[in-house]
Structures are given as C-alpha cells and as structure tokens.
Design a protein that fits this description.
2 domains; 8 helices; DUF1248 domain-containing protein; about 30% strand; Aminopeptidase
C-alpha cells in the first residue's frame, strides 16, 4: 500500500546515490503545498531552460482540482524520485456529448532509481486519476517510454509526432516583405476574453479557459482579426530567466496569419541577443506548414528533432489540428 501523508521533511537523502525503489520505502504526496513546490523547483525544474519557478502554481490555479501533481519520495526524506502530473479536460457545455479526456503530462523519474517497481508505482498513480485503457486517455510518449505506455493502455496508437527546434536569436530576422494585408493584430491583454476563448473552443473542445488566458497574457501574446472583426488566430511567446523563449502556442487559420502574429511579437521584443538566448518551436507532422511556417524569420536552415508521439486510446478527439502551428506547452496540454 502507498503511504499518503502530510509531509514533514526530516532528514535528507543524498541525491546521486543509486537507490532501489519499492512500495515499502516510499512516501506519496498528492496535496502539493509551498514546501513541495520549492522542492520540485530545486530538485528538477531549476535546471530546465523553459520554466519559471511560479509555473507549477500557475498551472494548478488554472486547472484547479482537475490538475493532479503527485510526488514520490524516499520514505521520511525530502529526496524526490518521481513526479507525475495529469490534467482532466472536461467537455465544454456545447460539447456535452463528449467524455472527459485524461491527459498525462510530465512524468519524471530520477536517473538514480533502480528497480522495476517505480514503473508500477507511477502507473498506479495514473490509474488513480483515470488514465487507463478505454478511458479516453492521452499522453506524450518518447521512443523510450512507448513500451511503458503500451503496458498501461494496451495501445501504441498515436495521432501525430511532435518535434522541437531551437534557433539562436542571432539567427533570427524580421522579414521585410511579409504580406499582412487585411490582418489586424492586437495585444492579447487588450481584447475581450470571449474573443480568445471562442476561437480556442473551435479548436480544442474542452475547458481550459483560465490556462489559455493566462498563457496569452503572461509575456508576449497577440490576437489576429480579419477585416470583419472576426478572430483568425492567436499566438504567444513565453520568455524565461535562462534567456530561452518559446512559441506556446501559435494557432491560426493559415500560414500568413501565423507569420503576421509572430512578426508583431518579435517587433515588440526586438531581436536583442544580450537579453534573449534562443527561440524554441514545437511542431508536428499533421500538416507540413507546422514546421516550415517560421522560415521567413530565419537566417539559417530550418531543422527539427522528434521528441514525442501524442498517444491516444480513442478516436473521439474534439480537436482540430489543422490550425495548430505550434501547441501549448506539452507538459500541460495535448495541443
């Protein structure tokens, strides 16, 4: 049995030492508080270039009780050996015929861990929030974790492949001959919530309104309109203390709109190589333009590396990938 407790950290176990994990030497924490958030940051996230130390709290606030973060620690210590997060996406009211989607986000297991039971432990945590075969479950899997995913869901079916590209800011440019005719771009902070949420609801038919508004209005966000005042796209670039910047997301009716939105954002940011390090872009293989749309902004060749497959155990998607040039952050959303 798992021990689920309110944590009082006592002695610390030294990270870096190999340890065999089993059911009888762990504590599992589900009610994450400030102390645990700090521990996650110090142990895992502070070494990442694409996260802020306030992000986990922000995600929890956005998704509320539908955001499930689980820590596995060595018993009676503050040594984290695994983190496992899930989001339960509920259909919007106008899509009440659809079922909830359980999305497994970031699963991290310490490289110091040995023993087969850690996989069983994290799988049990996923089952506890409804992530299982036939239960409308989705997750990102790497080539290394495909076997584990199959054991949990009985399937290796995937919707599409996801890729990542990194471009140094010194290799970026602002295109001089971009056709922006008929497109008006506004700061996401200056437009009604409804404009953003209605457009998102046509693409992703599940509730995530607080998350979307927060992401679009956090750093550099834009909403694009046509001449009739209809929303035709939105996009954002998130910036991090490391100097890394990430396009999360870029949704648009067509490639010309996506490029116009990015141009507006980069004009405000300026291509300051002392302030910004590199631009990160997630793309997918649903349609070729998800990869090549950024080309006018580059002085170098486009490139990408496969990082995930979006796994799914059902076909009732409620998702329109044809407008997704770049998704929201894969730790929190399937698109």
């Amino acid at each position: 049995m798992f021990t689920i407790i309110a944590r009082r950290f006592s002695r610390s176990a030294f990270c870096g030492k190999q340890i065999t994990i089993a059911y009888n030497n762990i504590d599992v924490v589900k009610n994450i508080q400030d102390r645990e958030y700090d521990l996650i940051w110090k142990t895992i996230d502070s070494s990442r270039s694409d996260i802020k130390n306030t992000d986990l709290k922000k995600f929890k606030e956005a998704f509320g009780d539908d955001f499930h973060q689980t820590l596995t620690l060595v018993r009676n210590t503050d040594r984290i050996v695994a983190t496992n997060s899930h989001v339960v996406f509920r259909p919007l009211d106008r899509n009440s015929d659809k079922e909830n989607v359980v999305f497994r986000g970031k699963l991290w297991i310490s490289p110091d861990v040995t023993g087969r039971q850690i996989e069983e432990i994290t799988a049990r945590q996923s089952y506890d929030v409804g992530f299982s075969v036939g239960n409308h479950s989705m997750a990102y899997a790497t080539n290394k974790t495909l076997a584990s995913y199959k054991n949990m869901t009985g399937s290796t079916e995937f919707i599409e492949k996801y890729y990542v590209s990194h471009y140094d800011f010194g290799d970026l440019c602002l295109p001089k001959t971009l056709n922006t005719e008929g497109i008006t771009v506004k700061n996401a902070r200056d437009v009604p919530d409804k404009d953003i949420l209605d457009y998102d609801a046509d693409i992703f038919k599940y509730e995530r309104s607080k998350y979307v508004l927060g992401q679009l209005r956090d750093d550099f966000g834009r909403v694009a309109y046509n001449e009739n005042g209809d929303v035709i796209g939105f996009g954002a670039v998130s910036t991090y203390p490391s100097g890394e910047c990430c396009i999360t997301p870029m949704y648009a009716d067509d490639i010309r709109i996506a490029r116009t939105i990015l141009k507006s954002i980069l004009e405000e940011m300026t291509l300051n190589t002392e302030k910004y390090w590199r631009l990160k872009l997630y793309s997918h293989d649903h349609f070729p333009e998800s990869y090549g749309w950024i080309r006018p902004f580059l002085k170098t060749m486009t490139h990408r590396t496969e990082v995930y497959k979006l796994m799914c155990d059902h076909k009732q998607l409620g998702m329109d990938f044809s407008k997704v040039f770049s998704p929201f952050h894969p730790s929190n959303c399937p698109m």
